[in-house]
């Protein structure tokens, strides 16, 4: 998907994204968000596991879970907001 | 004696009105008057003529005071007095009688003496008392004869004593005034003529003589005389010889004074010596003359009858003398003064004659002078007349010459005028003729011009009509050519329009990439030249279209494929889709069956297939319509593509419109 969008994007105006790339963009953001937050959670979990829980694994997983959950929720919100906007426009 | 009385009377006569005035006033006035009176006396003594003249006239008044004379007055005129000289004057005066005849008149004399003494005393007392008591003064001055004069005199003396300077001044002044006054007051001449009193008095004396009643008259006269004679004396006594020392000897003075004053005019000198003599005699002989005067009463001095009495001066003199004579007659002293009076008469006559001679000589002289003057005048007049004649004749000749010259000139001028007029007349006539000729010539010319015009018009009508037709034809031709030009122009324009439109189309179709076609559009617009249709068509094109250019159909199809893939991914999304639904839709859309051709149905897949087919057919319009039917996320995703297609469609439509317009125009021209 990224391959298809990239060639058209540079030809077009850089300022505004093309309408067909809207969803893809959102998806990109969500993914990046997920990675960052889950990694952050993982990092916290690891630190917690090392510091508090004597190097147990579950604190790290819990951290990843918190991060992924947070990212998911954000993505969901953005998509719903976009849908609401579309509805309003129509 | 007589003189004194007369003088006093005169003093009275001078101021009759003053007596009526108030006492204070009177006092002053009287003082002034009195100042005059004594002055007069002085002058009389110093041989001033004024004084003495008055007595003559005034003597008449003195006797008039006693009542009897007026009753006997028969109003005779001066002539009567003159006629009366023959009658004896007043018979012997009584006063001397008592003195001389002791036996007869002793008692009478005593009586008279006592009477006079008493009266003098009374008078003196009265005068004195009148100075003290005002009421008595009034009474005294009013009722007692000579009382006023006496009082006034006394007052005057008093005044003099008090103000000697003033008195002197007054006296110094007065004489001149008196000189002027006296002649007017004296009136000796005319009183003799008119005055009843004077006439009466004189007549009375004469008549008495005529009636041979000397006794009765003299008595009265005597009384009057005695009274008058005493008066001055009493006055003198009372005055006590203040300044007037001459008064004590009045008798001596009066005679002298009389002669001088009488002759106011020239003859005074002649008379003066004559008259002065008799009074002097009388003064000594008065008492002695008494006896003789008694028996020759028939020889009283004749009143003077002067033949040349017409002369006023002489008349006055005569009158004066007559008065003197009457007085003398009354006195009965005619004997005494006869000679002197006669002499005086003679002198008077001489004076009269002299005057007459003088008159005649003067008259002769005057006549001679008049004659001379008349002769001179005659001569002068003659000379004047002759000169005038000469001048007149000279003037006449001159006038005649001038007149002739004038006539000549006039004639010439008139001739000239006539000539001029004739000339003018001739010129006028000629001019008139010329004018008529000119008029005729003008008329002929006009006629000629009219004829020519007519001919020309006739000629012209034929040719002009043809010319008009020709011009019309030319005009139509011009119109035609113009029209054709227009047509040509229009065709050119339409052709250009076509070319432009073709150029635009070519630029659109020819390009492999979208590129701007603004230049072409601008050219098209210029060529269209404000064609409303073209303008509207161009305006309908979105500015971004010709600025960026429009995508080619190949591009559109390519893009559609990408758009279709995305749209398919979102085709299964519910209304309120979350992450899960999106993911599900993306995953599940892969497994959906693909449709082919014009698939029926409202779902996204069928719409997309239909669009694709339309696009493949090249029907952009329908493809756009189909894509427009999408909703939700699909529509949002395909929005940009749709806009692109619309732009292309708009441009195409506009171009088509322009093309049709151009075609229409070209069709219009055909």
What does this structure look like?
Chain A: It is a single-pass membrane protein. Chain A: Belongs to the MICOS complex subunit Mic10 family. Chain A: Component of the mitochondrial contact site and cristae organizing system (MICOS) complex. Chain A: It holds the Pfam family DUF543. The complex is a heterodimer of chains A (90) and B (670). With 90 residues, chain A is an all-alpha fold. Chain A is 80% helix and 0% strand. In chain A, helix 2 (22-51) runs antiparallel to helix 3 (58-89). Chain A is elongated and about 55 Å long. The two termini of chain A are 27 Å apart. Helix content of chain B is 81%, strand content 0%. Chain B has helices spanning 2-14, 16-20, 23-45, 49-58, 61-64, 68-72, 78-83, 96-100, 102-132, 134-143, 147-162, 164-186, 188-193, 196-210, 216-239, 250-257, 268-294, 312-331, 334-510, 518-528, 532-540, 543-548, 553-569, 579-588, 604-617, 620-628, 632-669.
Strand content of chain B: under 5%
**Residues in β-strands, percent of chain A:** under 5%
Overall, the morphology of chain B is elongated
List unreliable stretches of 5+ residues of chain B. 8-24, 29-40, 44-82, 170-180, 194-204, 206-225, 227-287, 291-298
Question: Regarding quaternary structure, how should these chains be classified?
Answer: heterodimer
Give the N-to-C terminal Cα separation of chain B: 183 Å
Helix and strand sequence of chain B:
HHHHHHHHHHHHHHHHHHHHHHHHHHH
What's the helix and strand layout?
The complex is a heterodimer of chains A (90) and B (670).
Chain A: H1 2-11, H2 22-51, H3 58-89
Chain B: H1 2-14, H2 16-20, H3 23-45, H4 49-58, H5 61-64, H6 68-72, H7 78-83, H8 96-100, H9 102-132, H10 134-143, H11 147-162, H12 164-186, H13 188-193, H14 196-210, H15 216-239, H16 250-257, H17 268-294, H18 312-331, H19 334-510, H20 518-528, H21 532-540, H22 543-548, H23 553-569, H24 579-588, H25 604-617, H26 620-628, H27 632-669
Helix pairs in contact in B: 1-4, 1-15, 3-4, 3-11, 3-12, 4-12, 9-10, 9-11, 10-11, 11-12, 16-17, 17-19, 18-19, 19-20, 19-27, 21-27, 23-25, 23-27, 25-26, 26-27
Protein name (chain A): MICOS complex subunit MIC10
Keywords (chain A): Membrane, Mitochondrion, Mitochondrion inner membrane, Transmembrane, Transmembrane helix
Subunit structure (chain A): Component of the mitochondrial contact site and cristae organizing system (MICOS) complex.
